[in-house]
Write a structure and sequence with these properties.
Protein name: Phage tail protein
Number of helices: 1
Organism: Solibaculum intestinale
Number of strands: 10
Distance between the termini: 45 Å
Strand content: 35-45%
């Protein structure tokens, strides 16, 4: 009997949590209403940046090899980008009453958390959390309506870094078909409160 193939074939349920505390002594949301759903998710390319450092001993040049995971680069493409959400991801505090996003050379990068799902071939989901992210840059290409019928997608270049409290970068969880995806709607609170 053939074994069922298990592979990923979808990308959806993209959320950012913009009001995140990422300190050595504590990690978690500072405001419960800081989750923004990014609609129109198209793709997400993930690149783990790891380096190997060899330590020699006993005349063996590879006596011990240490693998250091520095960061992860994510290139996320979305069809839609609300200006207020973009402002919150950049750490600019929203667009305000005038609905204008003001950006400048002296803006500092802002920390946020990111969650999303990938559909599995068995119709369950693989869920991902990136604990400490920064939006390094974004781009959008404009074309006249006469030259293209495609959406003018936003490409977000995001860097995920180790969480300061424990060095974790990513959490991954599988859920079966029909299970709720509520894991994507929250992030960890550390240190954990006993009994909660």
């Amino acid at each position: 009997m053939a074994t069922a193939k298990k592979f990923l074939k979808g990308f959806a349920n993209l959320n950012v949590f913009t009001d995140v505390q990422d300190e050595v002594e504590a990690y978690g949301l500072l405001s419960e209403d800081s989750r923004y759903a990014l609609t129109g998710a198209v793709s997400c390319t993930v690149t783990d940046n790891k380096t190997a450092a060899a330590i020699s001993g006993d005349d063996d040049p590879n006596w011990y090899t240490e693998n250091v995971w520095a960061t992860t680069d994510l290139e996320v493409t979305v069809h839609e980008m609300d200006l207020n959400t973009l402002s919150e991801m950049l750490g600019l505090g929203g667009t305000g009453e005038d609905d204008v996003l003001e950006e400048g050379a002296l803006d500092e990068t802002h920390t946020f958390a990111l969650t999303f799902s990938a559909l599995k071939s068995d119709m369950g989901y693989r869920l991902y959390r990136y604990h400490s992210c920064q939006l390094m840059s974004y781009s959008v290409s404009h074309k006249t309506r006469a030259s293209s019928t495609e959406a003018q997608d936003y490409v977000l270049k995001i860097q995920a870094r180790p969480r300061r409290i424990d060095g974790k970068i990513r959490a991954t969880k599988d859920v079966a078909k029909g299970e709720a995806l509520t894991w994507l709607e929250s992030i960890d609170k550390l240190p954990a409160t006993p009994g909660v």
